[in-house]
Write a structure and sequence with these properties.
Layout (H helix, E strand, L loop, with lengths): L3 H10 L7 H7 L4 H18 L5 H7 L3 H14 L2 H14 L12 H16 L13 H11 L6 H32 L13 H6 L5 H14 L7 H28 L7
Helix pairs in contact: 1-9, 2-9, 3-6, 3-7, 3-8, 4-5, 4-9, 5-11, 8-12, 9-11, 9-12
Length: 264
């Protein structure tokens, strides 16, 4: 039978865990417009992972009350982080050269500009959605989290596996990658003390939100996984890993490794 440790090993050895996207970002600072396109895709994906939907209620429906509480703690912790991520994105864009935003706390304006950048640089990609400004890969990755609004038992069990992969990747790969690219690289002359970087400060490190989220979901999975549900949980893990890897691949290839010219 698959164990929690087996799944954790699978997550940490998957190609997405050590994806070069953030290393390429750290190696050479992208332009304001490329940064905007990157942030639009990443921010849109991250936004899809925050709502709990029917997930906690569905967990209770199959008798997993403790797991529901652990997931609710994560959902509550993530509430309101969308504007903070937009502020950080606007701050980084401003540090690429001539400032774009007078007020990086104007979430609506920042997010609109990020989408416009994405439209200019990525619209020629197959499956790009002009209405949302999302690549086909971002749409696919987001669809994995739309399953949280379903309440059937099979989907709920898969969602638990997806949550496990999400929190381990976020804590040990995504947030550290962002820190390398945005802070450690020195490109943007920023640090965790700047108020505009509060999103990063809140998520980074041993005392950060992601550390607690990972602990919560490992506890949730390890206390219920058995031979009757391990395959479904493992499938939820794979759904997340493969969809995020495809998104990172296209963003890395289009915006960092090779780069695209603005669409006419």
């Amino acid at each position: 039978m698959t164990t929690t440790d087996t799944l954790i090993d699978r997550i940490k050895t998957h190609r997405v865990f050590h994806h070069p996207l953030y290393d390429h970002w750290a190696a050479r600072p992208p332009s304001a417009e490329v940064s905007g396109a990157l942030f639009h895709q990443v921010q849109s994906f991250c936004a899809s992972t925050r709502p709990g939907g029917e997930f906690p209620t569905a967990l209770r429906g199959i008798g997993w009350d403790e797991q529901a509480v652990l997931i609710e703690e994560i959902v509550d912790s993530e509430s309101g982080h969308g504007p903070e991520l937009a502020t950080m994105a606007g701050h980084i864009v401003n540090r690429t050269g001539t400032p774009v935003f007078d007020d990086v706390y104007d979430t609506e304006r920042v997010e609109a500009w990020l989408k416009t950048s994405s439209d200019r640089l990525l619209a020629a990609l197959p499956g790009y959605d002009r209405e949302t400004g999302l690549t086909a890969q971002a749409t696919a990755a987001i669809s994995v989290f739309k399953r949280r609004f379903a309440s059937d038992a099979d989907t709920t069990v898969r969602n638990l596996g997806t949550a496990l992969a999400l929190e381990i990747i976020s804590n040990q790969s995504l947030i550290p990658g962002e820190k390398r690219a945005l802070i450690d690289s020195g490109h943007y002359k920023t640090d965790l003390e700047e108020p505009e970087m509060h999103y990063m400060a809140e998520h980074w490190g041993d005392c950060g939100a992601e550390q607690q989220h990972e602990a919560n979901v490992i506890q949730a999975v390890s206390t219920v996984m058995d031979a009757s549900n391990s395959d479904q949980i493992a499938q939820g893990v794979e759904d997340f890993l493969e969809s995020l890897c495809a998104l990172w691949d296209v963003l890395d290839a289009a915006l960092l490794s090779s780069g695209l010219q603005p669409a006419e």
